[in-house]
């Protein structure tokens, strides 16, 4: 009985291994087929407009990745920072609080430092410094985002331009052949549709990154505003 069970177990493992191997081969073939299909469609769409749209995709992705890395590095645990600054103000005064801000990365710590730097001139001066430098930090957070929105708008426009040019080519073919058969116009219409699809795909990809970046910026700005209010409250408490 044990021998039968062992034989069935081995056969089962061999069967599962054969299924997994077959699935892996099919996945590899599908991936290779997709790459070949994508390459073929890109060539059929024409290197002119398809190449320009591809450049828009590459530049847009470069900006998006740079912004995502910058924003992730700019994200700060504001509650911990406020608590550390409060403790530093209580134990060592403004200089100790400034040292805490110097050792903390992110725009919130930079805003805190500017407010603490002007705190000796009064709460009004500190508040003005926080508001002014907050605008500077917001500009740094939004840097190059307008270029990303430009590429989002530009990609489908280039695709539609390729569509118009493809349709013009199709009508030229009709005029030359003096025939309106599908074989005459198919080439131009195919180019038109491919450029449109590629432009829309690029715009969709970049739009997803753009929305994520905007939501990340909004989150950081909200934290900056809340933390700035907390800093003014801490300075008011420290001045008493």
Automatic annotation (TrEMBL):
Its main location: membrane. It is a multi-pass membrane protein. Keywords: Cell membrane, Cell projection, Cilium, Flagellum, Membrane, Protein transport, Signal, Transmembrane, Transmembrane helix, Transport. The keyword Cell membrane applies. Residues 1-24 form the signal peptide. Residues 105-225 form the MotA/TolQ/ExbB proton channel domain. The chain crosses the membrane at residues 48-70, 147-171, 191-214. It is found in: Cell membrane; Membrane. GO terms for biological process: protein import. GO terms for cellular component: plasma membrane. PANTHER family: BIOPOLYMER TRANSPORT PROTEIN EXBB, PROTEIN TOLQ. Belongs to the exbB/tolQ family. This is Flagellar motor protein MotA. It comes from Tenacibaculum holothuriorum.
């Amino acid at each position: 009985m044990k021998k039968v069970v062992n034989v069935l177990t081995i056969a089962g493992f061999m069967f599962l291994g054969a299924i997994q191997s077959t699935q892996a081969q099919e996945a590899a073939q599908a991936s290779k087929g997709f790459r070949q299909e994508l390459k073929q469609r890109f060539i059929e769409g024409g290197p002119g407009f398809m190449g320009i749209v591809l450049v828009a995709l590459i530049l847009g992705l470069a900006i998006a990745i740079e912004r995502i890395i910058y924003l992730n590095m700019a994200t700060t645990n504001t509650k911990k920072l406020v608590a550390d600054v409060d403790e530093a103000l209580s134990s060592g005064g403004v200089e100790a609080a400034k040292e805490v801000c110097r050792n903390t990365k992110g725009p919130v710590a930079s805003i805190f430092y500017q407010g603490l730097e002007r705190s000796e001139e009064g709460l009004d001066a500190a508040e003005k410094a926080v508001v002014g430098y907050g605008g500077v930090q917001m500009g740094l957070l939004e840097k190059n985002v307008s270029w990303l929105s430009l590429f989002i708008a530009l990609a489908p426009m280039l695709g539609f331009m390729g569509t118009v040019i493809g349709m013009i080519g199709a009508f030229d073919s009709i005029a030359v052949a003096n025939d309106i058969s599908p074989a005459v116009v198919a080439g131009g219409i195919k180019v038109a549709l491919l450029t449109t699809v590629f432009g829309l795909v690029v715009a969709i990809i970049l739009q997803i990154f753009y929305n994520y970046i905007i939501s990340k910026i909004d989150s950081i700005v909200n934290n900056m505003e809340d933390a700035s209010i907390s800093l003014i409250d801490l300075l008011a408490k420290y001045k008493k």
